[in-house]
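Hey, can you fold this?
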Amino acid sequence: MNVFLTGGSGDLGSALARQLEARGDRPVVFDLRELRVACGTFVQGSVLDRAVLAAAMHGAECVVHIAAWHGIHEKERTRAEFWDLNVTGTFNACDAALSAGAKRFVYISSTSATNPNSFYGHTKVLGEQVVAGFAHRSGTRAVSLRTSAFVPHISPFYKSFGEWVKRFARGAVHVRDVVTSVLLAIDRTADTSAPAHETFTIFGASEFTPDERANWTATTYAARYSKEDVQLARNCGIDPTERPRGPTAEESRAAADVLGYRPTYSLQDALNDLRKYGDGGPPAAE
């Protein structure tokens, strides 16, 4: 299957393109930045250039729309830039998919969509609405994935692996798990009995249940991890009394039962990696 990835040269797109090719799909990576891995077909362009986007998408059977500014970019990008890429860019991707005859669409949204009063969250809510409307009008099957933060530890946004672990503990997700969720979403769009548009929430694996998070106490953390791990977490700046973010029981069930998503990388894994690799973190391939 021809799978078109907007913003495909980023962390998620690069990892996703490799997995798509490994399973026999034909990824087309569309981005302003050069492709970082020798995988699939690279086409340089912006989702804001409608003519270039439409030409590049010719022959696509499924579109995965990744291109966006994220919460981590809010200090360096203007509101207009966020609107242009996250809202207008999403419309352009949907419109090009319609012209190309692509009947399957996956939109990478964000858990920030649950906070529409933030500007970033607002643009992701609008993006979901654009995709939903497009799907219902065109007969396309679409899935929106509300992913938690998935920037890898090797990103310049993090000064150390310990800093990344602290962010992960607050409710992030490993990029490998996000790739898994996207592959499942792509497969979900092939189900002719599925609704035109569905939304799933994607978090990392957690040792804590939704009930435990809802009834969090100062001792919940210590009851789950060893004393050594609790101290290691404290060294990263993790406050054991702070309630970690995570999906609700309903969100977990929907992702698991409908999409088949079961994340594998948890805070325990992150602490194990910190112990094994130190503040440099594991190799990028891991």
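Oh, and this one too while you're at it.
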Amino acid sequence: MGSFSVWHWLIVAVVVLLLFGGRGKISGLMGDFAQGIKAFKKGMAEDDKADAKPAEPVKTLEAGAQKTEAERRAEGVRS
């Protein structure tokens, strides 16, 4: 339970260099994370818009079976 040895400090140094070394790896990761959240929110908003559209009324046989007076007369002439 004493102080850290040289090997412990080397491992800590390597981990710190991996995390903070290079060209802003942490800021790059945070930027990618933020873009992912924005894309997720945009996708959720698009789903809400798609659900909000009223559905087209269902066409039934009854609606198609009703003929106008002119159609009935035209059929009467043909027969």
